[in-house]
Specification:
This protein is an alpha/beta fold and 391 residues long. It has a domain of 237 residues: Aspartate Aminotransferase, domain 2. Helices cover 36% and strands 18% of the residues. It is built from eleven helices and 17 strands. The strands form four sheets. Strands 4-12-11-10-7-5-6 form a seven-stranded mixed beta sheet, sandwiched between helices. A hairpin with a 2-residue loop joins β1 and β2. α3 packs parallel to α8 and α9 runs parallel beside α11. The radius of gyration is 21 Å and the shape is globular. Bound molecules: pyridoxal-5'-phosphate (PLP). Pyridoxal-5'-phosphate binds next to α4. The site of pyridoxal-5'-phosphate has 15 residues, from α4.
């Protein structure tokens, strides 16, 4: 039995079967490559569902920041302050819209914080949050309530009163808002929902509507930030600012870090006792996050996301595959819409040494790390196009 098969068997025996895991055991990574336990090498356009989507695997700057911090202090508890946590919040708010930050570990938790903040901010019994069809905001009960219905099956009842509207449909949003609405939560690109891009008109209209109705605009940037779309944050594609933004995945460079960022209007709503997270923003994860923010700056990753993303989209177009309906995205968040399910392509790519995945069955999703180099982009694209042409 191979080492990999042993690990897969051990996993099946001892871990809950809540993930549709592939029979592959990963062992180590470097940049945009990852190796399985039997030594097979893959080009990684999947990047751990985007968690390594900025830095790639084991970037020396991230490893060094983690190692240095690990030897100094892992966690001290949030009744104390810590320099790196404060510097990370400063770095994020400086690139965003000012305000203040709450740190936690996952995108779902960041959205939970945003929901609680919105209810407290409204302060007058307004509690409803409007979200969108095909949205994904996480698996905890609050964030699940705002996520696409297909993920809610079996877990009902959800939080009561929340409305849902079609994405990019302002009239539906207006209809969904009532006197009890406290906030709207939206993704600039629905990552899990099929790589659907918000239009400029929609985001502008939404901003205006939130102002008119005095409700908070929460933008979920868990997939889209930092830098993945060719902007520090995807809302900057639209020249608007949200009131609240949530971050997760790539902000920790692979370490479990997430954040809820509140603008000046609501930055002091979460007072002592209202919310917390024991290890949120602990020194170790904050050190990783700060290293991610520095790396984006020093390696010009915002610009590289735009350039490399365009090249990849052009290469896919150039492949002239008959069953590709559209190629869309922003920066290095790229979706390829097919007129048939993409699973066979994903599995064949895996066999040939390329990791990608599918969103909503018919959309291939490419999320290469922003640090990827030209030869690895070409290697990955060549595998993908060869596989697509063969099927
Ligand atoms: C837009 C968005 N928000 C929130 C989440 C939930 O993040 P997590 O799995 O870290 O809880 C995800 C996960 O894919 C996501 O894509």
């Amino acid at each position: 039995m191979s080492k990999q098969s042993e690990i897969v068997e051990l996993t099946q025996k001892h871990l809950m079967p809540n993930y549709a895991r592939l029979p592959v055991a990963m062992e180590c990574g470097e940049g945009s490559y990852i190796w399985d336990a039997d030594g097979k090498k893959y080009v990684d356009f999947f990047a751990g569902f985007g968690a390594c989507g900025v830095t790639g695997h084991c970037h020396p700057a991230i490893v060094s920041a983690i190692q240095t911090q690990a030897a100094k202090l892992l966690c001290c508890g949030n009744v104390f302050t810590h320099q790196i946590q404060a510097e990370l919040a400063q770095a994020i708010t400086a690139k965003a819209f000012g305000g203040k930050v709450f740190f936690c570990h996952s995108g779902a938790e960041a959205n939970e914080a945003a929901l609680k903040l919105a209810r407290l901010w409204a302060g007058d019994g307004r509690y409803k949050i409007l979200s969108f069809h095909h949205a994904f905001h996480g698996r905890t009960m609050g964030s699940l309530s705002l996520t696409s219905k297909k993920y809610q099956k079996g877990f009902e009842p959800m939080l009561s009163g929340n409305a849902r509207a079609d994405f990019n449909d302002l009239a539906a949003v207006e209809k969904g808002i009532d006197a009890k609405t406290a906030a709207v939560i939206v993704e600039c690109i629905q990552g899990e929902g099929g790589m659907n891009l918000a239009t400029k008109e929609f985001m502008h209209g939404l901003r205006k509507l939130c102002d008119q109705k005095n409700i908070l605009m929460i933008i979920d940037e868990v997939w889209t930030a930092p830098a993945r779309t060719g902007k520090w944050f995807a809302y900057q594609l639209f020249d608007i600012k949200p009131d609240v933004m949530t971050l997760g995945k790539a902000i920790g460079g692979g370490a479990p870090l997430a954040a809820c960022v509140a603008g000046p209007k609501c930055q002091d709503v979460l007072q002592p006792g209202t919310h917390g997270c024991t290890m949120g923003g602990n020194s170790l994860c904050a050190a990783a996050g700060l290293a991610v923010m520095h790396l984006i700056e020093t390696d010009a990753l915002v610009m590289r996301a735009t350039i490399d993303g365009l090249d990849i989209m052009n290469a896919i177009h150039g492949g002239d595959i008959s069953y590709v309906k559209s190629v869309r995205g922003a920066g290095m968040m790229i979706g390829i819409e097919l007129d048939k399910p993409g699973k066979e392509i994903v599995l064949k790519c895996l066999e040939k040494g390329l990791l990608i995945n599918c969103a909503r069955d018919f959309i291939l999703r490419l999320a290469p790390p922003l640090t990827i180099q030209r030869p690895q982009i070409e290697e990955g694209i060549n595998i993908l196009l060869d596989v697509m042409k063969s099927l």
